[in-house]
Design brief:
The structure holds two protein chains of two kinds.
Chain A lengths: L15 E2 L8 E2 L2 H13 L5 E4 L6 H14 L5 E2 L7 H11 L8 H4 L4 E5 L3 H4 L1 H12 L3 E5 L12 E3 L6 H14 L5 H7 E2 L1 H8 L4 H8 L3 H13 L3 E5 L1 H4 L4 H15 L8 E4 L6 H6 L6 E2 L3 E2 L3 H11 L11 H9 L5 E5 L3 H4 L3 H9 L3 E6 L11 E4 L3 H4 L2 E4 L4 E5 L12 H11 L9 H11 L8 H6 L3 E2 L22 H4 L3 E2 L18 E5 L25 E3 L1 H6 L7 E6 L3 E8 L7 E4 L29 E7 L9
Parallel strand pairs in A: 3-4, 3-13, 5-6, 5-9, 6-7, 8-19, 9-10, 13-14, 14-15, 20-24, 21-23
Antiparallel strand pairs in A: 1-2, 1-15, 11-12, 16-17, 17-18, 20-25, 22-23, 22-25
Helix pairs in contact in A: 1-20, 2-20, 2-21, 3-13, 7-10, 7-11, 7-13, 10-11
Chain B lengths: L11 E6 L2 E6 L4 H7 L23 E4 L6 E2 L10 E3 L3 H17 L8 H7 L25 E3 L9 H6 L9 E4 L6 E4 L15 H5 L5 E3 H9 L8 E6 L8 E7 L2 E6 L13 H5 L9
Parallel strand pairs in B: 1-5
Antiparallel strand pairs in B: 1-2, 3-4, 3-5, 6-9, 7-8, 10-11, 11-12
The chains are: A alpha/beta, B alpha+beta.
């Protein structure tokens, strides 16, 4: 019987270095560790990548991207938003020119129809779901679209359970039904969108009966959702990683946005699009420019006027091209064009799809410096490990949430040992590499950002405190903008209406990892209520709900394979194989299995997942792998 | 284009409060008016994020012309009303309520109650040593929170917070009837067999400390809990993108409890299990 106690991590309290790749870590002074880091990075100028941190503050992300762009002269800066919501940002900015969710939580309480698509918010975003529940209690009807009949679906008017990876057929069938039922908001489509004719032709083949065949959802249910969404006075379309973690995640997002364009459910109070972000500052990291194609304030790297502004402010040359995404940086490690990485607060060795490949690539680097609060699996591969503070409890600064609300984080406890704030460490390294940046405190960093980003200009620390956070855009220090974005699309005056939103012409493309006789089961992944990502943080508190990792099957499949709850089975995909105990969940159906990735030290689920990436956003298809389940013959069922 | 709902414009209501003219927004309760006027009306079952339950009756005031005393927490101000908060009758009623509650349950961790007992000259021990008491052993069945029903005044706030007003989990309910009524989980089963999702939103609203963090319970038992030495710092949770505000209660550089501001637009005082209890990793310092 294996003991399934999650690994608990203890805080890093002092810098660690190793003298060669085979040597163990030894304790070092900050001076030694930083000198080594400066040497390692200087040697790799031109082949450098920065992994910034979606859990750290805006201020840290601002300084990290500035470090990459000014000190190292590269746009190769990205963060784990790549593995979750980058398609949402890419999709929304392609349609509207801005990558944020268009509505606010409060609006969900005042809407008529709520569509939760590929989102188990009840577990993954419980407090957002409280706003949904208030909406439902005020009379809103909620529709859940998810292959699993989740805790979220328990509150739905109707649950639509499509086959994994058939979101585009479903969306197109809904769009076609709206068109054929005469429910298109023609005034909005005519004034505020482009490409409608092409879209109509695109969705025309997706009849309800074809959609039923492909998605497995009864035609009547799809029709019902189409009519409810289109007829609603106000409607919210919310999604999470069930939409984005696919090889065509950006296309999925575009397919959903199309529905809002068709019906005019965007740019009004109570009507909008809400991608629910998975990490406390995944929105802010991108807003701060910790992505390879945008400068702080989500300003385009390719815009010469923008570059000039930053070149003047930073006294540097800003490259006129995009940098590499996280995914591309990993690929560049293979051909040797990326040789040094500065990894802050990320654990790609365990969070990337196809984890074994990620570890191999990180090992091949000339130099890896990891800045974290724990000695993670990624940190174990590093040449230098720098102990940092916990962003949310030991640092002053701000983070930005899913509704674009910038909020203050504050230092409540002192950091352990010699741990230092990320911004201080970055500035110290910048000084060693010839850039003397002086920030008195986090507010000084924030004020520099405010001077460069019009969307954040009005958000002084004092105002953030006064209003309990402010949503961007906030260009004025006197006024607040509406809680929703893109009201401009409803303006009668074309000049004030601005650029039209194009329909996304996207086609169905089934998951890369096909099921067949050898791998007959579709494995999808997700979060559980009480745990978080690779478990480094959540493993330390004792949750009565936690039962460790397991492979969840529906009762029919459990019977078919002759396995019972708690019995260990071998789960094998085309890339790897793990042993995990069985759990039976009636939310699943034959041919569909579920696992989380919260306990990689017990069961490394990402050995199974496929690194099939969205070509636009770079997000991997975590949601769709093909697996088979085999009984582990030795010793029969394990007792638990 | 849909208008943003602003609600019906609210008029001011004028009435007389303890002989003074009072003006409050239409829809305000007498308690709101008292607090605006700086009057200390005791409350126990009232919660700023919950619909008034009128369970404890400790906030009663006298409304001229009314047969019975009115609970200030739920009675709305009406034009021309004449309200007295400090009459003999109201004071006597509060005193008896405090005596009955304090003689039957342990109010040692109820904030401010000791002051009210003194102010209203309540004598909980006047019922003698044989007065009926709830006297239940604390239920320690998980590592996150403790249910000490020996401190429970049956105010139903936890039931409402767990139920339809916020969490919609419905793990907490009332079992038994009359004198045997107790707050419990459905069928009075062990908590760990219930629907509980350990969000701790019941702890957030509990007025007496009957529901408390395991950390607080253990520190109180060890005699190390010292609120005077604690700081409260509000920051943002790191567990997902929703951006819940957390107030970290810190004593001797250790997080000992987590709450959330009740007026916060994201949380309204509610959190999930990770935000409420998932702080230990930052202080794994060994």
């Amino acid at each position: 019987m294996r003991k399934r106690q999650p690994k608990t991590y203890t805080r890093l309290t002092h810098p660690l270095v190793r003298d060669s790749r085979d040597a163990p870590f030894r304790r070092a002074t900050w001076d030694e560790a930083l000198d080594r880091t400066a040497r390692g990075l200087a040697a790799a100028r031109g082949a450098f990548g920065m992994f910034s941190c979606a859990r750290a503050t805006n201020e840290m992300n601002y300084v990290a991207q500035k470090f990459a762009r000014v000190v190292m002269g590269t746009h190769n800066v990205d963060s784990c938003n790549r593995t979750c919501h980058a398609p949402s940002v890419a999709g929304l900015s392609a349609a509207f020119g801005s990558g944020g969710g268009t509505s606010s939580y409060e609006e969900v309480e005042h809407t008529d129809v709520i569509v939760m698509w590929g989102s188990n918010a009840r577990f993954a975003h419980p407090i957002f779901f409280q706003h949904v529940l208030r909406g439902i209690r005020s009379g809103a009807r909620m529709y859940a679209v998810d292959p699993r009949r989740t805790a979220t679906a328990e509150w739905a008017e109707s649950w639509l359970g499509p086959n994994v990876g058939t979101d585009i057929p479903m969306a197109h069938a809904i769009g076609r039904e709206i068109i054929h039922a005469g429910l298109v908001n023609e005034a909005f489509v005519g004034r505020a969108t482009t490409g409608y004719e092409e879209y109509r032709a695109l969705v025309e083949p997706w009849t309800l009966s074809l959609a039923e065949k492909v998605t497995g959802v009864p035609a009547a249910a799809v029709r019902d959702l189409a009519h409810a969404y289109a007829r609603a006075e106000r409607a919210q379309l919310c999604w999470t990683l069930g939409i984005t973690e696919h090889h065509n995640g950006t296309d999925n997002v575009r397919a959903l946005i199309n529905l809002s364009l068709l019906t005019g459910h965007v740019g009004r109070y109570g009507s909008g699009l809400q991608p629910l972000r998975g990490q406390n500052n995944v929105q802010g990291g991108g807003d701060m420019g910790a992505i390879p194609n945008r400068l702080p304030g989500f300003q385009d790297v390719l815009d010469p006027g923008v570059r000039l502004k930053f070149e003047t402010a930073w006294d540097t040359v800003v490259q006129p091209h995009h940098g590499l995404t996280l995914t591309e940086m990993f690929e560049a490690m293979d051909d040797g064009s990326l040789r040094a990485v500065y990894c802050i607060g990320e654990n790609p060795a365990q969070s990337e799809a196809d984890g074994e490949q990620a570890v191999r690539r990180l090992r091949a680097l000339d130099f890896l410096v990891v800045q974290d609060i724990f000695l993670t699996k990624t940190a174990e591969l590093a040449d230098v490990v720098l102990p940092a503070t916990a962003g949310w409890a030991e640092t002053e600064g701000t983070t930005t949430n899913s509704e674009r609300r910038v909020q203050r984080v504050r230092r409540a406890v002192p950091p352990p040992g010699e741990a230092r704030e990320d911004v201080d460490i970055l500035c110290d390294l910048a000084a060693r590499l010839g850039h003397d940046w002086k920030y008195a405190d986090a507010e000084a960093v924030w004020n520099e950002l405010r001077s460069l980003s019009p969307d954040h200009h009005g958000m002084t620390y004092a105002r953030l405190e006064e209003h309990q956070g402010i949503q961007w855009p906030c260009p004025s220090t006197e006024e607040l903008e509406p809680t929703y974005l893109h009201g401009r699309l409803w303006q009668a005056d074309p000049a004030r209406r601005g650029p039209r939103a194009p329909f996304g012409i996207v086609r169905h493309d089934p998951p890369v990892d096909l099921t067949d006789e050898e791998y007959p089961i579709r494995l999808t992944t997700g979060r559980r209520l009480d745990s978080y990502n690779t478990g480094v943080q959540s493993g330390s508190y004792s949750s009565p709900l936690r039962r460790g990792e397991s492979v969840e099957l529906c009762p029919e499949d459990a019977e078919r394979y002759g396995v019972v709850v708690g019995e260990e089975v071998r789960v094998t995909s085309r890339r790897g194989s793990v042993v995990a105990p069985v759990w039976v969940d009636t939310a699943l159906r034959p041919g569909l299995a579920f696992m989380s990735f919260h306990f990689p030290d017990e069961v490394d689920t990402n050995q199974l997942t496929i690194e099939a990436n969205c070509p636009i956003a770079g997000t991997a298809e975590f949601k769709a792998s093909a697996i088979r389940i085999e009984k582990v013959s030795t010793g029969g069922p394990a007792l638990r | 284009m849909t208008a943003i709902p602003l609600g019906v414009p609210r008029r001011l209501v004028e009435f007389t409060l303890d002989g003074q003219d009072a003006r409050v927004l239409e829809g305000s309760t007498l308690l709101d008016a008292c607090r605006t006027a700086g009057k200390d009306v005791p409350t126990l079952c009232e919660g700023d994020t919950l619909t008034p339950k009128n369970a404890c009756r400790v906030c009663v005031v006298e409304v001229e012309g009314a047969r019975t005393l009115a609970p200030a927490c739920s009675r709305r101000a009406e034009p021309g009303m004449v309200v007295r908060t400090d009459t003999e009758r109201a004071r006597h009623s509060r005193k008896v309520v405090l005596e009955l509650l304090a003689s039957s349950v342990d109010l040692s961790t109820t904030p401010a109650v000791a002051g009210w007992i003194k102010e209203y000259e309540a004598k909980p021990d006047r019922f003698g040593p044989d007065a009926a008491r709830v006297d239940e052993e604390p239920r320690i069945d998980n590592d996150l929170y403790v249910r000490d029903y020996g401190k429970c005044i049956l105010c139903y706030k936890c039931v409402d917070a767990c139920g339809e007003q916020w969490q919609n989990t419905f793990a907490i309910s009332v079992s038994g009837r009359g004198f045997d009524a107790r707050i419990s989980v459905e069928q009075d089963a062990p908590l760990t067999d219930s629907a509980c999702v350990y969000c701790g939103n019941c702890i957030e609203v509990c007025p007496t400390g009957a529901l408390s963090f395991r950390s607080e319970f253990d520190m109180r038992a060890a005699g190390t809990w010292d609120q005077a030495r604690q700081t409260e710092t509000t920051t943002v949770c790191a567990y997902c993108g929703v951006g819940c505000n957390l107030t970290l209660h810190v004593q001797d550089n250790e997080i000992v409890k987590v709450s959330s501001p009740h007026d916060n637009p994201v949380t309204h005082g509610n959190l999930c299990i990770k935000g409420r209890f998932g702080y230990q990793h930052v202080q794994n310092r060994d």
